[in-house]
Write the structure tokens for this entry.
Amino acid sequence: MFEIINPATGETVDRIAELDDAGIEAALARAAAGYKQWRETSIETRTALLGKIADAWEANKQHLAELAVREMGKTITAGLAEVEKCISGFRHYAEHGPTYLAPTAVQTPTGHAVARWLPLGPVLAVMPWNFPYWQAVRFLAPTILAGNVALLKHASSVQGCAAAMEAMARKAGAPEGLFQNLAITSGKVDAIIADKRVAAVTLTGSEGAGAKVAEAAGRALKKVVLELGGSDPFIVMPSADLDAAVKTAVTARVQNAGQSCICSKRMIVHAEVYDAFLEKFVAGMEAVKIGDPMDADTVMGPLSSVQQRDTVLEQVEKAKAAGAKLLTGGAKIDRGGAWMTPGVLVDLDPESDVAKEEIFGPVAAVYKVADIDEAIALANDVPYGLGSSVWTQDEAEVERFARDIEAGMTAVNSLLASVPEAPFGGVKLSGHGRELGPWGLHEFMNLKAVMFGGGKAGD
């Protein structure tokens, strides 16, 4: 039984039954049967369904957003924005599906060939709680377009959101077996990956969870895409628009209560603007409005759970023990639920263990560097390589950052965000493979060469 706890109050708001072994087997059988039918549908049928799913989400936008508030503490404003983003994701693949799946003709020495994108089969997604809808839609929309079918193993704390997603697909007319939510614990995942009816697996989560899923997929010789943790750098150079940089840095650390893989966590600031940046940044963090997540004016609500909040507080204490100074915040708020204040750390030894970790909460570490070489070296001096944000008006510096920062994404003078049109993913311990755009769609498809012309058999 999954117990759903409202992180704003600490109260249990729902209990959801776990799927037993017989239920898992029935779901896999439905997925296999559903795939046989769905893989033969036209692209027009698939894109039409994506449009209808988007319509269903649009019609139930408030309900979906409120579920996210209740289950993981997201503010209502952020919840509505996340639902809107999902709608745009479904509509993006509905609009661009025919282009993304168009065959490509090439000439060969003996004739010609056609490269075609074909589906693989049922895809299992293991998803986290921090963006309960968007993380899953990044997998779901391209899966439907590809002609595959989807199995979702969502985090235990957002099972209501997961069930609502399946309900939206049913409302839109999705055929049986196309999209199923599996209300299971992580201990059931290995056996599902090993099942011959499952073609591939994708995971968004910690590097520990990613390693386990990759190991299981490796044993079964199945394709896997991993989007894991991040400790993204936010680099500010002397030519930057300082006020814009500070405003964005504050947003990066407090949106979703700091619980975002791609929101910058390490502020790396050139010595020429360090003092000015730090003064403004501390003031900005202290001004963040913390309160009822259902209030539209609230900027930051609770963290997703008391356990997650306490993990962040423990990391703050580890940083202080390693010589860092806590300039503001980073403390528990004494009220029911998973509340804390935004924190700013300075003088953290970049070689300390905690400096190498991802702090998945509203705490920033600010570093001073002498030049661009030191900034890039420090940016790369962590095991992660997901995203980055750089602030400069110097085109040569932009090129250096784009070339030399070890990350899957770099935002220039802006907050890094995932969008349906661009590839999303990282390197190093941040995972491998890409989501979104045609790249995410093609990850779980069979690129098949159909050869025409003469030549000997077997050539």
